[in-house]
């Protein structure tokens, strides 16, 4: 007899995985309860309905990629979560998409907290001030440095659902969990200089199909 499994709510989808037989991979969000605090805790489940030999290994590779790129942790059941216990759903979706882009066998390392901004030719650096606060700065000469710094800070805020710190600090953003997420910020920084392209990619991914298995039977 088949059993019905509730794998959670799908929040992101890669309809065609070019690195493994064009399988479809989905990211699902579940809710659990932290046994220590008694508070609800979001968990993330990477899943495919494909039964092709090696599919399970491919899913595990994506999970491992998310752990490294997003600084996420994994439960014994293979569910992922952020160490702060918050969802950071938009950021998690980005981590998932980037992890799925990694070809099998690729050495995965956290992205550095700096990147070259092709538009201004500035080297953009992000400095952690602690408590989830990050300040964007530029190293090098370029036109409109202050404007680009503010734009990239805004890009980080958009991609990571971060907050501005108020006042006139247009170069500073923060996670509302007050927890440092260096690996996650390093990943988001690669997309922040051109946030429109990143958001368009997410929209296209969401509109290209659904993970087919309406009964969710395993």
From the N-terminal CA to the C-terminal CA, the straight-line distance is 10 Å
| Major sheet: arrangement of strands | 6-7-8-10-9
Unreliable stretches: 212-218
Shape: globular
Keywords:
single chain, alpha+beta, Gyrase A, domain 2, 5 helices, 10 strands, 24% strand
Could you give a short description of this structure?
With 218 residues, the protein is α+β, with helices and mostly antiparallel strands. The chain has 5 helices and 10 strands; from the N terminus they run βββαββαβββαββαα. Helix 1 (55-70) packs across helix 2 and helix 3 packs across helix 4.
Structure description:
- The chain is α+β, with helices and mostly antiparallel strands.
- The protein folds into 2 domains: 9-109, no CATH class; 114-201, Gyrase A, domain 2, CATH 3.30.1360.
- The chain has helices at residues 55-70, 89-100, 145-160, 182-189, 195-207, and strands spanning 9-14, 25-33, 40-47, 73-74, 80-81, 114-117, 122-130, 133-139, 163-164, 172-174.
- Strand 9 and strand 10 (172-174) form a beta hairpin.
- It is globular.
């Amino acid at each position: 007899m088949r059993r019905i499994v509730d794998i959670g709510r799908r929040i992101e989808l890669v309809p065609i995985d070019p690195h493994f037989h064009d399988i479809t991979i989905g990211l699902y969000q579940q809710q659990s309860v932290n046994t220590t605090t008694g508070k609800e805790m979001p968990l993330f489940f990477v899943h495919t309905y494909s039964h092709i030999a090696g599919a399970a290994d491919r899913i595990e590779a994506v999970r491992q990629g998310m752990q490294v790129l997003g600084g996420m942790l994994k439960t014994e059941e293979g569910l992922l979560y952020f160490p702060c216990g918050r969802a950071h759903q938009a950021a998690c979706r980005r981590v998932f998409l980037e992890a799925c882009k990694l070809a099998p066998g690729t050495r995965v390392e956290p992205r550095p907290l700096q990147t070259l901004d092709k538009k201004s030719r500035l080297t953009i650096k992000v400095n952690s001030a602690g408590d989830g606060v990050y300040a964007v700065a530029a190293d090098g000469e370029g036109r409109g440095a202050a404007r680009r710094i503010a734009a990239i800070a805004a890009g980080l805020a958009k991609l990571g659902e971060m907050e501005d710190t108020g006042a006139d600090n247009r170069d500073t953003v923060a996670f509302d969990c007050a927890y440092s997420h260096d690996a996650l910020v390093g990943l988001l920084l690669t997309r922040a200089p051109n946030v429109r392209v990143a958001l368009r990619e997410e929209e296209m991914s969401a509109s290209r199909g659904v993970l087919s298995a309406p009964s969710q039977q395993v």
